[in-house]
């Protein structure tokens, strides 16, 4: 059936099964559906591989450098640059950023209040904006106004029924390819911020709150990655000391000869 057809995208297939299972359980509980069993109960979920891709500091630098020379005018390249930078700086989910509204920004431009209806956990989130984010948004609003494109949305689109951009499109694909980052997804920018925050020593609680993780295990994966890197760094320092000692012994031996 549909689940089998979606085998190529195990995550989506599993979510579809879980949604169908929940709907039938609710229908049977409320007697809206009269049957003895849930047809989704016997459907096995596909194994899912947890994605672990994050930007290295070098890759993040290359990405930022590549979009830093984007023209300061309203155009597809400017929109993509603003999206990427704001995704990297705030770590919000893709759909939340694309549907961002000017009314969600406080009058002084320092706080972004994201409505609960847009959040995965259905809880309102307030993001304190720094100088970099404020500069991007201030410039963007002016560019949109100058081009006569200013609407309720920060990333407006007259091609979608929603009135806002739904996807960065081929411009994102082209940028990835030009930088050799073909395996980088939009969501990886969010994961990269979590990992970078963990690298700075930010607590689990702070990272979880900053990125509005609904499951602490998601946050902990950032710390596992950080811990692995710390272990590697420590091992390499020890190895370097040994190799240096070995070279010293070798040099001394040659001197004696």
Task: Please describe the topology of this protein.
Elements (H helix, E strand, L loop, with lengths): L1 H4 L4 H20 L27 H12 L7 H15 L3 H5 L12 E4 L10 E4 L2 H16 L23 H9 L7 H14 L4 H7 L5 H41 L1
Antiparallel strand pairs: 1-2
Helix pairs in contact: 4-6, 4-8, 8-10
Keywords:
two-stranded antiparallel ribbon; 10 helices; mainly alpha
Can you tell me about this structure?
The chain is mainly α and 257 residues long. It contains 10 helices and 2 strands. It has helices at 2-5, 10-29, 57-68, 76-90, 94-98, 131-146, 170-178, 186-199, 204-210, 216-256, and strands at residues 111-114, 125-128. It has a two-stranded antiparallel sheet. Helix 8 packs across helix 10 (216-256). It is globular.
Our Rg estimate from Cα atoms comes to 24 Å
Largest sheet: 2 strands, antiparallel
Distance between the termini: 78 Å
Low-confidence segments: none
Strand order across the biggest sheet?
Answer: 1-2
Quaternary state of this entry equals: single chain
Structure summarized in a few sentences:
The chain is mostly helical. It has helices at 2-5, 10-29, 57-68, 76-90, 94-98, 131-146, 170-178, 186-199, 204-210, 216-256, and strands at residues 111-114, 125-128. The chain is built from ten helices and two strands, in the order αααααββααααα.
């Amino acid at each position: 059936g549909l689940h089998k057809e979606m085998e190529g995208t195990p995550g989506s297939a599993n979510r579809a099964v879980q949604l169908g299972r929940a709907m039938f359980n609710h229908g049977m509980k409320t007697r809206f559906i009269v049957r003895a069993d849930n047809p989704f109960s016997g459907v096995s979920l596909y194994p899912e591989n947890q994605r672990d891709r994050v930007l290295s500091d070098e890759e993040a630098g290359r990405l930022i450098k590549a979009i830093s020379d984007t023209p300061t005018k309203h155009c597809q390249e400017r929109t993509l640059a603003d999206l990427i930078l704001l995704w990297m700086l705030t770590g919000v989910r893709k759909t939340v950023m694309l549907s961002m509204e000017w009314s969600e920004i406080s009058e002084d431009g320092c706080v972004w209040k994201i409505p609960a209806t847009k959040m995965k956990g259905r809880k309102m989130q307030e993001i304190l904006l720094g100088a970099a984010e404020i500069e991007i948004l201030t410039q963007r609003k002016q560019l949109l106004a100058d081009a006569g494109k200013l609407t309720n949305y920060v990333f407006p689109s007259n091609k979608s029924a929603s009135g806002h951009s739904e996807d960065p499109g081929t411009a994102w694909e082209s940028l990835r390819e030009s930088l050799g980052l073909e395996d980088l997804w939009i969501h990886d920018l969010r994961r990269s911020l979590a990992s970078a925050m963990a690298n700075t020593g930010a607590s689990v609680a702070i990272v979880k709150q900053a990125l509005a993780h609904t499951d602490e295990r998601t946050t902990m994966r950032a710390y596992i990655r950080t811990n692995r890197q710390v272990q590697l760094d420590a091992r390499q320092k020890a190895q370097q000391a040994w190799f240096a000692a070995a070279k010293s012994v070798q040099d001394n031996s040659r001197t004696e000869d």
